Structure prediction request, 587 residues.
Amino acid sequence: MTAFLQLESVSKWYGQVIALNGIDCRSDVTILGLLGPNGAGKSSLLKLLVGLARPSRGRVRVFGQEPWRNRRLLADLGYCPEHHRLYEGLTALQFVTLLLQLNGYRATQARQLAEAALERVELVGKRQAPLATLSHGMRQRVKLAQAVAHQPRWLVLDEPLTGMDPLGRSLTIELVRQLADQGVRVIVSSHVLHELEALTSDILLLHRGQLLAQGPVAQIRELIDEHPHRILLKCRQTRRLGQRLAGYQYVRRLEFDSGSLVVETDRPDEFYTLIGELAAGDDFVIEAMMSLDDNLEAVFRYLVK
Amino acid sequence: MNDGEQTARVQQLVYRPYQGPLESLGGRFRVVAAHQLRLSLKDRWFRRLLLGSFFPLGVFAVIVVVQSRISQALGRVLDLWQPFWGIQLFFALALTYLCGRASIGEDLRTGAATVYFTRPLTRAGYLWGKWLGVALPVMVVTLGPALLLATFRLLVEPAATAALFLRWLAAAALASLLVAATMGWVMLGLSALTRRARAAGFLWIGVVVGGSALAGGLAETLDDSLWRALSFTEGSAHLFSFLAEGRVGWAEGAMGAVGMVAWALLGWMVLRLRLAAARDWE
Prediction:
């Protein structure tokens, strides 16, 4: 039986720069995580998967087909890019409608589907707001809406949780899980293990263009937990939030910057749960949260020794 | 909750890929063009110029009326098309700047190009859509007023015949199409050269001014005014004047057409070469 994803000795280089080096992989899981630090080759691999680039060597197959300029396969794809400065003058509704029309939907139908997709990501109240006026997290949700609006068979999400507020995170995770339950295949990339772990336990671990590991995430997780985890929080009441967090044992260090707070913790799971609870209450408005990745780089250095 | 509501809720939860009719792949360049035009229409300078391009028509209408009254006394008919076309070209140049400067480079810079190409859209469809987004406004400000002026002249001028009217129409259509092709492809080529819209705008001004200076310099050096037609503004004026009124010779008219086609090809080549080198394009 044809696997959802097959990579055979896939290499990709741009001039002298090798982005991917001899990747072999076969996967049929519902949600596949692509993990690696910045520059690991995740974006290059995603470009090959969504047909934006052709491998310099080797073969890429998705549902048994080559993705390179394969319009039939692309018609079934929902792609959420990493970039977030897309057509800032358009409203959320216009943006999603435009991309649906590129899939061939007529204007009226595209608009209906766009409305439904924005409702799905709980942005229906912001549908007439220009993208430039939306927060980073809201833009992420708009990008997610355009990716799922045409009911694709497979989804590729490039760093979908970066910069999202805690509520947006849980909404996105819930939506992706729902889609996977309904049979949609999902490939999601991140440089933060905890983000991927919330979605799947099956990962491809990339580093410097090479595939380091494939499969369950448990072992890597143990390694990561040995290292302190740095998380950046954007919040209007940084001082008060810092005071509150300082009372927890697993918060090892706090750094204040203009409008943001960097927290170092050795128990990220408990910390993320705490932040979720604080955000759900009325005391703090947490606008964005992102992992600063230092720990993952340290783990990769350890793994490749 | 009644049965109807329950059914609606259940259907909402079921995930079913769409199986209905879709627009053809070949026609999707229209979506790109419509989007480009929508973005342009948001710019108030674009709207002002588009409207403003019809104002000279009023002045020329007055000239036509006055001329039709005193043409017998004058003994000759004034050359109206060449100055009229020159003014409309000014609007076309300005609109090309406004519509095209952010066209390709901005898509590469913001990553919009990757979003386009993960949709079932061909590269050619994307480029033709982008071109149409520039070419349509150019054609509106050149062909539109020219058609209105030709119609007005037919109605007012005693010497205007149906055959002459058809000649004017054909001249306006052909010259407009060439102007739109030239300005559109040159501007898209420049827009692909840089990811900054402002830089693309400066390049456009440089090409227009530099092209005219080069053509003028060649004409002076070689002592042959034919070379002036290598500038696509002058080339267009020569071609239109030749086609509409025969006031310039066929050699100048032909040189104008050749110059414009050469500029359009140059723009197309720059665009293709630049995109071939872009990682997001492949």
The radius of gyration of chain B is 23 Å.
